[in-house]
From TrEMBL, chain A:
<dbReference type="InterPro" id="IPR006059">
    <property type="entry name" value="SBP"/>
</dbReference>
<keyword id="KW-0574">Periplasm</keyword>
<keyword id="KW-0732">Signal</keyword>
<dbReference type="GO" id="GO:0015846">
    <property type="term" value="P:polyamine transport"/>
</dbReference>
<protein>
    <submittedName>
        <fullName>Extracellular solute-binding protein</fullName>
    </submittedName>
</protein>
<dbReference type="GO" id="GO:0019808">
    <property type="term" value="F:polyamine binding"/>
</dbReference>
<keyword id="KW-0614">Plasmid</keyword>
<dbReference type="GO" id="GO:0042597">
    <property type="term" value="C:periplasmic space"/>
</dbReference>
<dbReference type="InterPro" id="IPR001188">
    <property type="entry name" value="Sperm_putr-bd"/>
</dbReference>
UniProtKB/TrEMBL annotation, chain B:
<dbReference type="Pfam" id="PF00528">
    <property type="entry name" value="BPD_transp_1"/>
</dbReference>
<feature type="transmembrane region" description="Helical">
    <location>
        <begin position="217"/>
        <end position="242"/>
    </location>
</feature>
<feature type="transmembrane region" description="Helical">
    <location>
        <begin position="82"/>
        <end position="112"/>
    </location>
</feature>
<keyword id="KW-0812">Transmembrane</keyword>
<keyword id="KW-0472">Membrane</keyword>
<dbReference type="InterPro" id="IPR035906">
    <property type="entry name" value="MetI-like_sf"/>
</dbReference>
<feature type="transmembrane region" description="Helical">
    <location>
        <begin position="124"/>
        <end position="146"/>
    </location>
</feature>
<keyword id="KW-0614">Plasmid</keyword>
<feature type="region of interest" description="Disordered">
    <location>
        <begin position="1"/>
        <end position="21"/>
    </location>
</feature>
Length: 358, 304
């Protein structure tokens, strides 16, 4: 056996360095029919190997990825790397910000034939539009709404959060924007721009006797729900599917009459994209029902914006049961917040939390 | 005498070894300190200074937002008076955690230093430290399993009294203090232990032979003589505890709102770095003021 000496260690380390350098210096495989660079979260649909392979075989377009780990990082990458990306996955709220800074180009929907079956409510979302033109293809959506233990009465309003019947049995999402939105919906206001913040504050404060805990991760939610610490909670639609499917938790996802607190991710094309044609082809591929079927059943996916794709899922699919297309009619979508409003929301939630802790 | 020799040696020229004029002492001191202070400047001082600058800005300097300097972040305690209550809670939690750490840590250190020898002592010291080498998050989450209703604590309690109610107290301030005491106890044990092992056995034997009971020995000899250890342990515990956010968040549930969680929220959720920075510098100022006020008492304690 080789002894661990300084010399051997050095040999090993320098060997590793040389190997690493050689590996990274290898030329990339040459491709004949163009390529596109996609900017997205890692492991979020666009980088599935089977899909990229099939897409390359069909169109001859190679798909290369770059990733971001926060939405502000995504915007920074768009701003500082003109010409580097052909397709970017971005939230509706961020899309409004990106179009305001002229980072995106309008979408030529005639080149995205699958877009005809995209739900109209999503396509007409104001955050995706500027001067009447669409700047992103709506791709997937989800929402935050109420989750309740199986067998308990199904609530029809967010006001149930303050119902004395749930004393000490409610969990809230520790997220300022979500909680302010819930408070706004409880008081019948616009969740993106509530005029009467005092009413929102009072509504949230009125929940105090019911609030058992504030959760911040899905794992924490699952553990506490499994330990029967609460019965009613603000929760994510996708999270409820995962809790039910993977952890076998008896949870029912309910969207009350005020509607869910929704989000939509879109596919945008940067203003400086070198291969916009290829990007449009890939966007069309991503909203195709056949791609969505594979993604949702093999890997697990959020709800598709394409109602045809959602309808193609098996009827007993949990994701399909939770993301009913009719929810889209009532669902409000979180939109871009100006800095001062965001700050006001955060301060409000901080104050409510301090009140809960008293 | 020596310098005479040196002079004569240099006068003799090539016949003796050449003597170089010694460098001024500050040069060698600076050279020796350079690596340490250079590293500290780069890794600690500059980032902190940046944060201090951030705390005077109107918004996080990212993207195209223009940089506006303002003092409004430091007005947070006036504009948002509920922060005062949170700060008070944090100080209270810090006080109780430090107090509990001092009691348990000191007793554990006494037991270690006075009742064990050689290998046994080393073994026990390692056994005390061993759990603290696991990830903090894991340890806190394991507390949730103990403290929650129908958790381990309840199970054991119900073995004795099957019909009694639950004694689980997860999501209370007590749970937060338990988690924090667990987290910071080793600092107290180690500092107290180091102070206690230096006490000469003869002093205690003398006291015992003069008829002192154990409590007299404990409070009249051990505590005063180990005071430096207790005080440094208290400082090492108190300061991080009032800024802690993981324990309150996981064990405190609804009541787990402290300055630590408020600052964390400003950095992660609200993306308002300036407010987070100004709150932490305000907290730093308060802590310095507290230690400044009590420094006289502390010094007397160390001198005793």
């Amino acid at each position: 056996m080789t002894e661990i000496t300084r010399r051997n260690t050095l040999k090993l380390m320098s060997g590793a360095v040389i190997a690493g350098a050689a590996f990274s210096a290898m030329p990339r495989m040459a491709v004949s029919a163009g390529k596109i660079t996609v900017l997205n979260w890692q492991g979020y649909g666009t980088d599935e190997a089977w899909s990229i392979k099939a897409f390359a075989e069909k169109t001859g377009i190679e798909v290369v990825h770059d990733y971001y780990s926060s939405e502000s990082e995504m915007l920074t990458k768009l701003r500082t790397n003109p010409g580097a990306y052909d397709l970017v996955v971005l939230n509706a709220a961020r899309c409004a910000q990106a179009t305001a800074e002229d980072l995106l180009q309008p979408i030529d929907f005639s080149k995205v034939p699958n877009a005809t079956t995209i739900d109209a409510n999503l396509r007409s979302n104001a955050n995706f539009l500027k001067d009447g033109k669409g700047y992103a293809v709506p791709w997937v959506w989800g929402m935050t709404s109420l989750a309740i233990r199986d067998g308990m009465p199904v609530p029809d309003s967010y006001k149930v959060l303050a119902d004395p019947a749930y004393k000490g049995r409610v969990a809230m999402d520790d997220d300022a924007i979500i909680c302010v939105a819930a408070g706004a919906l409880m008081t019948g206001q616009d969740m993106n721009n509530p005029k009467d913040l005092d009413a929102v504050r009072d509504a949230l404060k009125s929940i105090k006797p019911n609030v058992k805990l504030l959760w911040s991760t899905e794992d924490q939610w699952n553990k506490s729900f499994a330990a029967k610490e609460f019965d009613l909670s603000l929760f994510w639609s996708g999270g409820s599917v995962r809790s039910k499917r993977n952890s076998k938790l008896p949870v029912d996802f309910v969207v009350p009459k005020e509607g869910g607190i929704g989000w939509v991710d879109g596919l945008g094309i940067p203003a400086s994209a070198p291969n916009a044609e290829g990007a449009l082809a890939f966007a069309n591929w991503l909203i195709d029902p056949s791609f969505y079927f594979e993604w949702a059943t093999k890997v697990g996916a959020p709800a598709s914006s394409n109602s045809a794709a959602l309808a193609a899922l098996p009827a007993d699919d949990l994701s399909r049961q939770v993301h009913k297309p009719e929810y889209l009619k009532t669902m409000g979508i979180m939109s871009a917040l100006p800095d001062d409003r965001r700050e006001a929301f955060n301060n409000l939630w901080q104050e409510v939390k301090a009140f809960y802790a008293e | 005498m020596q310098s005479d020799n040196l002079t004569s040696a240099s006068e003799r020229g090539s016949s003796g070894p050449r003597v170089r004029r010694p460098l001024p002492s500050w040069v060698s001191t600076t050279a020796l300190l350079m690596p340490t202070y250079g590293w500290l400047t780069l890794a600690v001082f500059l980032p902190l200074l940046t944060m201090l600058v951030f705390s005077f800005m109107a918004a996080t300097p990212m993207g195209k937002a223009p940089i506006v300097l303002t003092l409004k972040q430091y007005r947070a305690f006036i504009d948002q008076p509920y922060l005062l209550g949170i700060a008070f809670t944090s100080l209270l939690i810090g006080f109780w955690t430090t107090f509990a750490c001092a009691v348990f840590g000191f007793l554990a250190a006494v037991a270690l230093a006075r009742s064990t020898f050689g290998k046994t002592r080393e073994m026990l010291l390692i056994l005390i430290l061993l759990p603290f080498w696991t990830n903090g998050l894991v340890r806190i989450f394991s507390w949730t399993m103990v403290l929650r209703e129908n958790g381990f604590l309840d199970t054991i309690f119900h073995m004795v009294l099957p019909d009694a109610g639950s004694i689980g107290f997860l999501y209370t301030r007590y749970a937060v203090v338990v988690g924090l005491v667990h987290g910071y106890l080793p600092y107290m044990i180690l500092t107290c232990y180091i102070a206690l092992v230096t006490i000469d056995d003869a002093i205690i034997e003398a006291a015992a032979s003069l008829g002192a009971r154990w409590w007299t020995i404990l409070f009249k000899i051990l505590v005063p003589m180990a005071a430096p250890g207790l005080i440094s342990g208290a400082v090492l515990t108190f300061i991080p505890v009032i800024g802690s956010f993981m324990e309150p968040r996981i064990l405190g549930g609804r009541v787990g709102v402290t300055m630590g969680t408020v600052i964390e929220d400003q950095f992660t959720q609200a993306f308002n770095w300036p407010l987070g920075a100004s709150l932490s510098f305000t907290l730093l100022a308060v802590v310095l003021a507290i230690f400044g006020t009590f420094s006289g008492v502390l010094r007397r304690g160390t001198a005793a």
